Amino acid sequence: MAFKPLLHLLLVSVAVSLVLPATSALNIEFVYHHFPQMTAILRQLANEYPELTKLYSIGKSVQGRDLWVMLVTSNPNEEPLLKPNVKYVANMHGNEPVGRELMLHLLSLLLDGYGKDNYITWLLDNTRIHIMPSMNPDGFEASAEGECSGVQGRGNANSADLNRNFPDFFAGPPKVAVQPETRAVMDWIRQTQFVLSGNFHGGALVASYPFDNIPANSPKNFRKFGSPSTTPDDDVFRHLAETYSFNHKNMYLGQTCRDGSPPFLNGTTNGAAWYSLIGGMQDYNYVWGSCMEITLEISCCKYPRSFQLPQFWNDNQKAILQYLGEVHQGVWGRVTDQNNNPIHNATIKVKGREFGSRSTYRGEYWRILRPGTYTLQAEARGYDSVELNVQVAKGVIVQNITLYPQSSTYYEPRSDPTFQKGGLVPSISPVSNAASYTGATVKGVWPTYTRSLKPKEAVIFPRGYLYQTSPQFIDYSPTSNRLLLNYNYFGGK
Ligand SMILES: [Zn+2]
In its keyword annotation, does this UniProt entry include Cell inner membrane (predicted)? Predict the structure, then answer.
């Protein structure tokens, strides 16, 4: 019985040694890679696999190190409609680098496995996977191998804790300045609609999910150790956390790292139920990024000796792969008008779950949901809102949504005595959230149109007409309730 696996192993190793050059980056050592070595590995992988990777930097750390991200997917230069974006972020705390090394091994596994392993091939064919090995490269360089606890290198070069540095849903903007690393991630999240995310840490063994913070003024959620602070998507978050913990070699056992601390049931916990914090990244992803992010604590020792890295890779490998596949569960589709034009920034919500997502410029939306029946609510400025029921089974259901213009927001400006010269003017429409409305500036010489807006009014430009528009957007000021519009109408439908 032992003969067959041995033969198999032999064949594989022969095949690999024949195919790969001796210097292949696939032979990533189980050691901690400092920034120059990590950068070299990423560059080498990008060179060896141009058809599967795109290496990019989302900005620089305080000390000027690139915040590298490697996109792994089939045809990385194409963006097929509805192919979802997922991400892994590691080493946000500089002295918690196990995830940093696991990300390099993950890259190697995905690139080597494409075309050989069915699951990996399916994953890369259907998912855009963005991997950031280090969000805090400066902190890593300041920390020391073998330090299991402590804070040396935890923060960035300004000693700021990046996982306390995000705007907070309950507490508002962070008390210290938003750091370059934080800003880069916020911009990244704004520019790319991520659907699923994992954030690797060390110092415990548990999969933790939002919220990390709790409502400040809620009497039943007073700031007390152990109070859970759940999101309306608690069922989804629990499932995501359990997907990781039960595919991990031992996280699901819930064993605690320290004597005296309570065990984690199934190796998962609500963030605030463990302990609450302000300005964390997972809450930010969920509330402002419409991205389901959980925090993966994967080593009791924050910076274990490198000889333990093969064991950590072995313990986490299956969980890391299975978690990525969870983006393919729920409902997604496109929001378009009656002429199949995409509608950008439509809000898509699930009834009973207050946190919605916004459609991309191509009208795409994604929502991870457990099997069940849901009511989708879609709305966009200038369109009638719709509600529709969806039945989610295992896997993804595609539900495209068509929105029709609110006919009442259009009127014939030629009959408006304000506009003696005729022409078209933007119409005024009530919106539910005027304070966040952004009005497009339309520049031109004629006519200048000034009108006071009533509370909760916003300007809607008629569609189907040509304007000379500025690419800039200006904020509508809710305090003055006034918006000056200079625009030039070119006429014609
Ligand atoms: Zn951490």
Answer: no
What pLDDT is stored for residue 218 in this prediction? 54
Which CA distances in Å does 45 have to 13, 34, 39, 262? 20, 17, 10, 42
Burial of 193 (0-12, 13-18, 19+ CB in 10 A): buried
How remote is the CA of residue 297 from the centroid of ligand 1, in Å? 7
Beta bridge partners of 268: 207
What does the CA dihedral 169, 172, 174, 179 come to, rounded to 10 degrees? 70
Task: Calculate how far, in angstroms, residue 162's C-alpha sits from the geometric centre of ligand 1.
Answer: 9
pLDDT at 214: 87
Helices (H), 290-397: 309-325
Distance of alpha carbon 84 from alpha carbon 193, whole angstroms:
8
Q: Which bin fits 290, alpha (ψ -120 to 50), beta or left (φ > 0)?
A: left
Q: For the chain of 493 residues, list the mean pLDDT of each consecutive stretch of 10.
A: 38 38 65 97 96 98 98 96 98 98 97 96 98 98 96 96 94 89 97 98 96 73 66 97 98 88 91 91 96 97 97 97 98 94 96 94 98 96 90 95 67 37 40 32 32 42 37 31 36 30
Residues whose Cβ atom is located within 5 A of ion ligand 1: 93, 96, 201
Q: Bridge-partner residues for 348, per DSSP? A: 357, 378
Total residues found in the chain within this entry: 493
Between CA 400 and CA 123 the distance in angstroms is 23
Q: Do 102 and 312 contact (CB within 8 A), yes or no?
A: yes
Sign of the C-alpha dihedral computed for residues 215, 350, 333 and 403 taken in this order = negative
Decide: 140 and 97 in contact? Cβ < 8 Å: yes
Give strand pairing partners of 331. 367, 397
Q: Phi, psi at residue 279, to the nearest 5°? A: 85, 25
**Residue of 96, 101, 297, 457 marked catalytic:** 297
Give phi and psi for 427, each to the nearest 5.
-100, 165
Structure tokens at 300: 């009791």
Please say if 297 is a catalytic residue: yes
Distance 325 CA to ligand 1 centre (A): 24
Give the per-residue pLDDT at 261. Answer: 76
**For position 437, what pLDDT does the model report?**
31
User: Residue 461 and residue 79: Cα distance in Å, rounded?
Assistant: 30
Distance, first Cα to last Cα, the chain: 76
Distance CA 273, CA 280 (A): 14
pLDDT number for residue 289: 95
Q: How far is CA 277 from CA 273, 282, 288, in A?
A: 11, 11, 17
201 CA distance to ligand 1 middle (Å): 4
Task: Give the Å distance between the CA of 381 and the centre of ligand 1.
Answer: 41
